[in-house]
Design a protein that fits this description.
The protein is an alpha/beta fold and 260 residues long. It has seven helices and 16 strands.
């Protein structure tokens, strides 16, 4: 039983279904209705990572799985999740930012990763859409992006084709406990028992803290995204400083920030 029909819940359900489990996903509104459709789909493993460590290694390993997953979902569902490896450009406009990005490039290059410092002229040659004030840029050609809405919908479609269930407009109101175990969920219409319950409700997971019996310090943070068609020269790559701009396959540009 999986509470939440976003990209996390649907990903878990997909891999469980591939392993022979018949998962049930319960979604309060529609698949990818909340943060999974509001996210930009950046797979920015390198562009904004300033130190090595287990999390960085995990991000690199995760990024490496996406090309194969995109192909598999296309074969299973005939849906294109718009996986594109355009690379990420991190422009800088001041000396402090330049120092930080140069250091980021240096340690990643020492590890054998694709990372390069570009002068202002090189940055403009690579990405003519950058403003004249740019003083340089970090270039991370192996960072990718996807369409997170389409990917979530493709995962849900694959779950159904593999014999799982995805129930929309089915809000979970409470968790059912038996001692220290969660044994099911309550919805507005029924109580459903399950051997295992996965809580993947994203920013809304905190409402189940009392029922779960463990701290769930999760809360929403507001970001902003604008979808626009930009005049030429349109961007060729993802440009990601405090605000990101992503050129999509169909010509739109996604402009946004993770936190307002």
């Amino acid at each position: 039983m999986i509470v939440g029909g976003g990209i996390v819940g649907c990903s878990i359900a997909f891999f469980l279904a591939k392993a022979g489990v018949r998962p049930i996903v319960l979604e309060k509104t529609a698949v990818a209705a909340e943060a999974s459709s509001g996210g930009a789909g950046l797979l920015s493993s390198q562009a904004h990572t300033d130190e090595a460590g287990p999390l960085f290694d995990l991000k690199l390993a995760s990024r490496g799985l996406y090309p194969g997953l995109a192909d598999e979902l296309r074969e299973r569902t005939e849906m294109d999740i718009e996986h594109r490896q355009l690379g990420h450009v991190v422009p800088v406009f001041g000396e402090d930012d330049a120092r930080a990005v140069r250091a980021r490039v240096a340690w990643q290059a020492e590890r054998g990763l694709s990372a390069q410092w570009l002068t202002a002229g090189q940055a403009k040659d690579l990405e003519p859409g950058l403003p004249a004030e740019v003083r340089g840029a970090g270039w991370f050609p192996d960072d990718h992006h996807i369409n997170s809405t389409t990917m979530t919908q493709a995962l849900a479609s694959a779950v159904l084709r593999l014999g799982g269930q995805v129930r929309v407009e089915c809000p979970v109101t409470d968790l059912v406990r038996d001692g220290r175990r969660i044994t099911g969920v309550r919805t507005a219409r029924e109580t459903i028992s399950a051997a295992e319950v996965v809580l993947a409700a994203g920013a809304w997971s905190g409402q189940f803290e009392a029922a779960a019996g463990i701290p769930l310090p999760i809360f929403p943070a507001k970001g902003q995204i604008v979808v626009a068609r930009l005049p030429a020269p349109a961007l060729r790559h993802v440009v990601y400083e405090a605000v990101y701009v992503i050129p999509r396959a169909l010509g739109e540009h996604i402009i946004g920030s993770t936190v307002e």
